[in-house]
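ok so I'm stuck.
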Amino acid sequence: MIIEDVVAFLKYVPPFQFLDEPALYHLAVGMSMEFFPKGTTILRQGGPASRYLYVIKKGGVKVFRRSAGGEDTIIEFRGQGDLFGYLSLFGGDKSRAYVVTVEDATCYTIKRETVRHLLDSNNAVREFFLKSFLNIYIDKTFQEMHGRSLFFSGCGDRLLFSTAVGEVVNKVVLTAPQKMTIREAAVLMCDNKISSLILADDEDKPVGIITDRDMRGKVVAKGRDVNDPVSSIMSYPLMRIDARDYCFEAVLKMIKYNVHHLIVVSDGALAGIVTNHDLMLLQGTSPLLVAKDIESQQDIEGLAALSKQIYNVIGILLKQGARASNITRIVSEISDRLVRKILEIAERRFARPPLQYCWVVFGSEGRKEQAFKTDQDNAIIFADPITTYESDEAKKYFSVFAAFVRDSLVQCGYPFCPDAHMASNPRWCRSLSEWKKFFSDWVAAPATELGEAGVNSLIFLDFRAVGGEFSLADQLRDLLTVILRGRSEFIGHIAGLVARNKPPIGFLKSVMIEKSGEHKDKLNLKVKGLAPLVGIVRLFSLEAAIRETSTLERLDALKARNDDVAEYGEEIAHAFEFIMLLRLQHHMEQLSRGQELDNLISPDSLTNLQKKTIKEAFNLISRLQESISERYKPLKRVLTCRED
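replied:
not stuck anymore, here's the structure
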């Protein structure tokens, strides 16, 4: 190791750039250099603490945590000039995360004593590490609840996504027999100063829960007899979460099911209870608070003002180091809540619908992959009318109803779909039987007529129920599953569309960008990155009759049912998460600068590791498309012969 080379390198690496020449030289003399081949585990979660602070000279690593269930949560990738190992070095007797090389890597190593001396002797270095790694979470209430300090860290110890529910659970849980009266339950709650009470059966097994909210809404407001059994007002079934799950999953469940308490189980036994208040304290500004505020609104104006906070939620989650899929899942749940609230307001305004209906969303909303508000993509399925009069009345009602919802969504920041793929368009507002015929005609159309049908199918095949009677959407999904069996021509046409959208890579497998025109020197992350991945996984799902709509849920369901996914599933998920996160970060930066959102990035703005990762993602897409083309070649030849 040549000392002068080390000094020249460290001059451009924070925080060592704050040191003068003699200090840099002294530091370099005491450093060592290590080489790690691709795939080397340098630090292991739960393993021995690091002995060194590592500075990446060349190559890259990924930092991730592994849940008790074996699921890996990638925190971030680090490349040339980045550091790792600090928290492990000073944070205790074990490593907090895995650090694994994603390519051959060379690292400088600095001993603990040397780092300690720098912290003690240089204010700029000490401030850098304090800001970057040890932003102490000092909320007094939370400290009392935990009895210990918690940390945010640049190494990825993000509380919401790395703290297990078991760490924040209130282990003192009061249970009571479900046979007691409402009055007795209220006295018990008051005496113990608790806001919820778990009710148990004769075998002392939890069967339900009552809360202060139940006492107000179901007893006081309704004038109910307080001598009635408390089981008559309890909520059930109980929403449960495993103590080993991350707090993020608890937040998601509370938003999705509109509950404020979850019972926590450990190895099947009751371990405690966690409340939305606990999670708000843990996170600070919480998505739970936004969801709660949405529920309290009674008019569109209030919702419109509140909807702007969704951007804040995304920013917070990005800063906390959340995976892209976790961000989009939370935002989708909040958006679903907002849509259901608009539907509720619309039903009050236009009276009860003449027929049951289901409000469905598709595209990125249908896949739960929406983040920053995109164009509206929605439709209405209403129950089959019995008479012509009933049919006419339903179409009149839903025409006005859908227009109101459309305009309300615009007020809340969701613009019109330029192609009018909205429920306000009569084509996208149909009875269940009409929808079934529509789908059947799509799938049964001859290959020579599948052009528009194929495109429309791609738009709508990701449909998902959000409001109203969900069974209507389930029946349509059932039909789709049945009619796709044996429809090789239709699936083959979809395969052709998927294989046609080539990633921007050249003959030597390097990334290409636009050389001229409006998008000169830019790369479209959505069209050339996300769309091909979504299309490939959607095709595999159609082939295997998978009902899930989100890309990652589809991948999970396909693991044992598709050879390509069995071989490349983890790589597909990684590529999808990576491009999604790049896009989210790009949008966040544009918002901060007051720019209009687009999906165009300059490759020059990416780090070397990001460039390498996106190139590998595009090469993966290309390999999968080649595999799809090869599989459908015989069908293509048959169709060509028929056309001739």
